[in-house]
Write a structure and sequence with these properties.
Helix 3 (120-140) crosses helix 4 (157-168) and helix 3 (120-140) packs across helix 8. By secondary structure, this protein is an alpha/beta fold. The protein has 2 domains: 2-113 and 282-311, Medium-chain alcohol dehydrogenases, catalytic domain (Quinone Oxidoreductase, Chain A, domain 1), CATH 3.90.180.10; 128-255, Rossmann fold. Strands 3, 4, 5, 6, 7, 14 and 15 form a 7-stranded mixed sheet that branches. Strands 10-9-8-11-12-13 form a 6-stranded parallel sheet. It is 28% helix and 29% strand. The protein has 9 helices and 15 strands. It binds NADP nicotinamide-adenine-dinucleotide phosphate. The site of NADP nicotinamide-adenine-dinucleotide phosphate (NAP) has 24 residues, from helix 3 and helix 4.
């Protein structure tokens, strides 16, 4: 059996559709027919020639080099999941099979069934960035009602869900985003919006959480406007290892965020947050697989609102 798949011509920095052999599920895996798969920063970086080691590994199993979060339909039986069930999944970011293709063979532990009411696009929009926001707001820095959060990059995937979850906990959220996205950030639950353009947008408050989604700040910088016991969380903690050392000697904390895979319990928690209304999908745009270059370009454009998706 063959399938439609997205291949990246790294030398040309462009995507194209190819016909490729469909994968066969191995032990512990389920064959998933992809319906919608999101675009992530790693995909854009792969197209630009990044992640060489991972790309070499992905090439061993076929031409597909991009995509790792999705909504689809199981087409084979697993131990828990039955053929025909609608599922979401997070294929491990560093070494899992890529999902910008008609089919992928996914480890069953990286999948969870979804309710009928959760649409494919909404489900795919939630997976990794919703899980990330849950990890920050429930595991790393659980906020109490009335505490203050600063969410930098509040109109992006992690940022929008971070604002939603923090607000649902009763926290007072200050969102930082482009001026054009101020209303969008307020609709996610931000009490106040500051723009990147505003001088010293971080100052004037004692935040209990600073969530830095573009990872442009550092613990040292954020600590100046954090409350005692407050936590700085960056989406790229490896870029600020010195900050982690400083945090050990400080009454303020640096939270280690590294969500490289999920598990059924986490995915179930994500679905529960959607059912409870504390996480609401944010979709900037949806492209056909054949328009992947436009989707990748859109992802890399400042000013988007939420997730960019590929309809497979
Ligand atoms: N460590 C982990 O476990 C983990 C988990 C999930 C994601 N991530 C990483 O988190 C990052 C964010 O992911 P995402 O999907 O939420 O991305 P995204 O949707 O592109 O959001 C990033 C936001 O950052 C802002 N931004 C971009 N460049 C900026 C700059 N130079 N200065 C200031 N702000 C800038 C943008 O705001 P405007 O468009 O409003 O300007 C954008 O809304 C990615 O690098 C991703 O790989 C890490």
């Amino acid at each position: 059996m063959t399938m439609r798949a997205l291949a990246v011509d790294v030398a040309a920095g462009a995507c194209r559709i190819v016909e490729a052999p469909a994968p066969r599920p191995g032990p512990g895996q389920v064959l998933v027919e992809m319906k919608v798969s999101a675009v992530n920063e790693m995909d854009v970086q792969v197209r630009a020639g990044g992640w060489a080691r991972q790309v070499r590994q992905f090439r061993k199993t076929g031409p597909v080099l991009t995509g790792f979060e999705f909504a689809g339909v199981a087409r084979s039986d697993g131990a828990r999941i039955r053929a025909g069930q609608r599922v979401i999944g997070y294929s491990p970011v560093l070494d899992g099979p890529r999902t910008h293709a008609q089919f992928a063979a996914i480890d069953e532990r990286d999948l969870a069934p979804i309710p009928d009411e959760l649409l494919d696009e909404d489900a795919a929009a939630l997976v990794v960035m919703g899980l990330t926001a849950i990890e920050v707001l429930e595991a790393i820095a659980p906020l109490k009602a009335g505490q203050k959060a600063l969410v930098i990059g509040a109109a992006g995937g992690v940022g929008a869900y971070g604002v939603q979850l923090a607000a649902s906990r009763g926290a007072q959220v200050t969102a930082v985003c482009s001026a054009a996205n101020a209303d969008f950030a307020r609709r996610q639950g931000a009490a106040e919006v500051r723009t990147y353009e505003a001088a010293a947008y971080q100052q004037g408050d004692a935040f209990n959480l600073v969530l830095d989604t573009p990872a442009r700040s550092s613990f040292g910088e954020a600590a100046r406007y954090m409350a005692r016991g407050g936590t700085y969380v960056s989406t790229n903690p490896t870029a600020d290892l010195g900050g982690f050392l400083r945090a050990m000697l400080s009454p303020k904390r640096a939270g280690w965020l590294m969500l490289l895979r999920a598990d059924p319990a986490r995915l179930k928690r994500l679905i529960a947050a959607w059912c409870a209304g504390t996480l609401r999908p944010v979709i900037d745009s949806v492209y056909d697989l054949s328009d992947a270059d436009a989707a990748f370009d859109r992802f890399a454009t400042r000013g988007k609102q939420g997730r960019v998706l590929l309809r497979i």
